[in-house]
Structure formats: structure tokens, C-alpha cells
Input
Amino acid sequence: MGNRIKQWWGLVQDGEHVRKFLIRSNVHAAIYMTVIVILLECWMLFSLGQNIVQSAAAGKPRDLPWIVSHSAWYVGLMASAIVVLVCAVNYLHGKIKNGKLVNAILFVFSLACLVFGVHFGNNSYIQGEQVLAFVTMTLFVFGILSWKPIAALVLSTVAFGGFYLYIDHNAPATLGTQVNLFTLWIATFVVSLSSYHQKVSEANKERELEETNRRLRYIASYDELTGIPNMHTFRGAVAVLLGGIDELDTRFAISYMDLEGFKVYNGRYGFAAGDDLLRDFAQGLLKVFDNELVARFSDDHFVALCDADVVEDRIEAARELLHELRGDVRLHLKAGSYELTGEHDDVGLACDKARVACNRIKKMADKNLRWYDDAIEHEFQRKQYIINNVKRAVKEGWIKVFYQPVVRCSDGSGELCGYEALARWDDPTYGLLPPFAFIETLEEHREIDKLDRCIIEQVCRDLRAEMDAGQQPVPVSLNFSRLDFELYDVPGFLDEIRNKYHIPSKLLDVEITESALTEQFKELQTTMSSLRDESHSLWLDDFGSGYSSLNVLKDFQFNVLKIDMAFLRGFPENEKSGPILSAVVSLATELGLVSLCEGVETLEQFEFLHSIGCERAQGYYFGKPDPTKALPKPLA
Ligand code: C2E
Ligand code: MG
Ligand code: MG
Output
């Protein structure tokens, strides 16, 4: 028999959930049914009493066997209904746990009801009345309770067949009665069939819903990948602790951990292995921070809460754990810790402080742990200030453009050929802030677009003013963050502002750092080709500062290669600087790129660049970034 047919007949073993659902639903139905039966039998017993009294008053007293047989039926059914009611209530309260026993009790009670129905239906039939007692009882048994179809078929057939034979034996049934009973039997079976399938489908839906809820509850509290608590749970637990921290003797600290080099690990061994590492590390952390709180925040970032006195030991143990797991990739654990001060601490802020402390030692090979201290507090306050005030800074004109000249080098003239626009934040409280004080913060909070759009507009406004004054401006190069390309339509915005100020695109060059080009490869290529179509010159900024430089040259099409100032820094003391610079300039020439060297601070450096064929130069030697478009210092 096909599985579907078996299922249809209820011959397939029900799952645990469906089984329990059916029992529960039948137990509920039995409670309604037994209450009705008890009330009904009370009524019958009352009528019986009335009948006995009235008969006696009329001088025709009922004989004892008659009284006993009638009251026995009523009392018997009522007693069994009471037993079933007690069992059902106890099952719902968990006092009876055996589902099979409950099923058996319900089955016996149903049989009792059917026998009662057959008996009183027959009595009515003999007296020429309708067989309502039988109909009522079959309705109770098959309409309220859910039976497996096969059981319903057998039980209803036995009930109807038995009833038919019984009444036919006492008074032969007419064709009408036969047809009525047959129709009722079919209808009863169909009702119980549909009730069963409906209940099973309800049970399945309920199970799916419960599973989804369980999953959602799990996801809301635990990290799916590692199985340890997530940020939400961690924050909740710390918030509870903070509520009562003033009464505790222990000093608590939040530690933020970062697996430095995890991207490289992913690159070397693949994402699946990266996931395994995170899982193993998380499980290991549970042991390191035994009986303390550990959570995964995101990516390769974990947090833990423990006694401030044991932080050093715990971080050392976590570092050793990572050491064992890392394979031959140089993975380092960096941690930042913040000691909770009390009720007025905000959990989110406390975690942020631990993270900021951690970030402070990211590039320091010799340090694994940094406590959040006053120095960081000041920096943190400033960062908070930057984030809270970026909109205001744009509106109030605190964002200023400083221009640094770019000069011609290939002809050795050192003459002006462009400017680089560099942002400054001229703050009423903090004074003039250089980019390192705000660019990274704005990037971290995905607010960098506000600053960059403001710079673009100011540059265009300045160019317009020069053109209106009858001057012929030189091109200005603009710095873009990797996030600009995610946060807004860069080509569209440039186009809009150029049109507003009527600036030719040749006057606006686009600088993109090589680190911006490691992600969202396809989207960036599309954006860059739009910019190229609009005749913007594309510059690769800080070439050589990252580890993907050469790949970037292969995959993207630039016009200008801006060589990072780190190459010049050692020149001429470091003998290798010269040949490396020379090779990079030749590479640019061979690839058809204009070479531009940043960080020229001496005439000697400039002359060297000229000698190796570098086309342009920029650096303090010619001029520092300045709010006016100052001319480059002439060659001495
Ligand atoms: P960058 O684009 O590589 O800019 C060159 C940086 O080198 C500038 O620092 C400049 O002042 C400095 N510099 C130029 N010549 C010399 C030199 O001879 N010696 C030394 N030691 N330094 C020199 P600045 O202005 O502090 O900018 C730092 C970085 O901030 C920029 O590096 C750029 O990546 C970013 N930045 C600046 N303005 C903006 C902006 O408007 N938007 C975005 N997204 N980033 C910007
Ligand atoms: Mg630049
Ligand atoms: Mg640069």
C-alpha cells in the first residue's frame, strides 16, 4: 500500500508531536463530553425519580427490577464519565503521564457510550420513537473525539451493525430505517475522517510553528555558528549585573577579543575552515572563561565578562588556545579590557570601550592586552564627539578643504600641475583636527559620505570662484573612502555637483586607495568605468601600502599611480629605496600609468625621482596642505 494511502487511513506511526497533540485534543474533548454526559444523566435520574413518584401516586408503583435496571444504566454511564473526567483533568495537569492509558480509558468510555446509545436507541425504536439516544452517543463518540480512520471505521461499523441487528431482531427494520442508518453510518465515518485529518494537519502546523519559535528564540540568544551566547544575551546579562554591582565586592571587567589575521586564515584555508576555527575557539573560550560569561559579537570578535583581577590570566589562556588552533597562519589574539564602574555604566558603551582599547594595540606585535585608561577615554570622547557632531560640522562649515600642490617632475621643473584636496575639521572645542582624528571614526560608523560630499562640493565651489575670477584652475584630486562607493552613487553625485557649478570633469580627479579595492570587486569595477566614461582621471592612492597592490593593478584600470610615501621615507639612507622606487616607476610607465610620488621632503628626493622618470611629485618640500591654493615652493 502506498505511503499516502497508509497515511490517509492513519496506518503510519504518528510522530511524537502528532501523537501528543491528538491525545491532548481528545482529552479536552472528553472533558466537554463527560460534563455533558454527567449533566444529562443527572437529568435522567431526576426524571426517573419523578416517574417513580408519579407512578406510585397514581397507584401503579414501579417494580424494583425496573427501577434498578434503569438507574443502573444512568448511574453506570455517569460514574464512568466521572472517572474519565478525573483522568482527563489529571492528564492535563501532568499528574497522569501515560498517554496510552488515557487512550485506553477514552476507548472504553466510548464503548460504554455506544452500548448505552444502542440500548436506549433500541428502547425508543421498539416504542416507535426516534433513535435519538443512539444518534447522540455516536455523535459524541465520533464527532467530538478524533479517531484514526481505520479505528473509526471499525468502531462505527460495529456500533451501527450491532445496532441494526439488535433493533431488526426486536422489530424488523423498514427499508427507510435501513437507508437512514446506512446514511448515518457513512456520515459518521466521514465526519470522524475529516476530524482526524484536520487534527493531524493542525498538529503539524503547531509543530512547525514551535520549531520556528524555538529556532528564533535560539537565534535571538545564541550565535548560530559557534553555539555560544550572542551580543544580545551578553548585553542583557551584563545589564543585570550592573544593576547590582555596587553591592558586590568583585571588580568586573569586559574584555573584547579580536583574532588578528583571521582574514588571512580564511584566505589560506577557506571559509569552512575559518568557521571551524571560530567554533573551536569559541568552545575553548567557554573553558577558559569557565563559569563566566563569553559571547561572540560578530565575525572574529568575542567578548567576555570576568573578575578584573583574572583578566590577564584569562587572556593569556585564550591566546595560547588560539596558538594551538591557528595552523601555520600568524593569528594573534588582541584584547582590550574595560573595568565596569557601576550602575551608571551603559553596557553598549562599556563593550565599545573594551573594543576601542583592543583596537589601540592592533598593529603592535608585542602587545596582547590593553586596558581602557584615561588616554583612551579622551580619544573615545573625541570619537563620540565626532560621530555626534558630523552633521553639525558640515552644516556649520567646520569641515574645511586644505590643498596640497602636485608638481611636474618628469621635466624637472617642479611646476604646479594639480592639487590634492585634504579634509580638515576646524572644531570650536578641539581646534584644527587632521584626518586621522576623524576619517577612521566616520568610516567605522559609516558616516564618511557626509564629509566627502561636503569636500566635493567645496572643491567645486572653489573651482567655480576661480573660473569666475578669470583664472584657469588646475585639476584637484579628491580622496574617496571605500565606503563612499557603498553609501551613495559616487558618479551620480559628482555629475550632479559638477552640473551645479559647471565644472568640467577633467578638473576633478578621483583618488581611491588600494585597500578600498579588496571588497565588492564587481560593483567597484562598474563604478570606476562610469567615472572613466565621465572623463574623470582615476588615481590609485597609496600604492604599495597594502598587500594586494600588484593584483589591484592587474584587475583595475587606473590613469595615475600614486606611490606611497613610505617608499621615499628611507631615501637616500636606505640603499634599497632607490632601486625599488625606480622599479615601481618603470612598472607604471610600462602599464601606461602616470607615476606620482608622495612625500617628497627634500630636493635630493625630487631630483632622484626626476632621474628615474617619475612624472609627478607631491610633498612638504613643495608645500604643506593649506586652506588657500598656495603655489608650490620653487626649486632651490
Ligand atoms: P593621502 O590621500 O595619502 O594624503 C596624503 C597625506 O600625506 C596627507 O595627510 C598629506 O598632508 C600628507 N603628506 C603630503 N606630503 C607629505 C610629506 O612630504 N611628508 C609627510 N610626512 N606627509 C605628507 P593628511 O592630510 O593628514 O591626510 C591623511 C589621509 O587622510 C589622506 O592620505 C587620505 O587617505 C585621508 N583623507 C584626507 N582627506 C580626505 C577626504 O576628504 N576624504 C577621505 N575619504 N579621506 C581623506
Ligand atoms: Mg590621497
Ligand atoms: Mg596617499
Remarks:
- Residues 456 and 478 are 7 Å apart (CA to CA).
- The chain has a mean pLDDT of 92.
- The pocket of magnesium ion (ligand 2) is lined by residues 420, 479, 511, 541 (CB under 6 Å).
- The first strand starts at residue 252 and ends at 260.
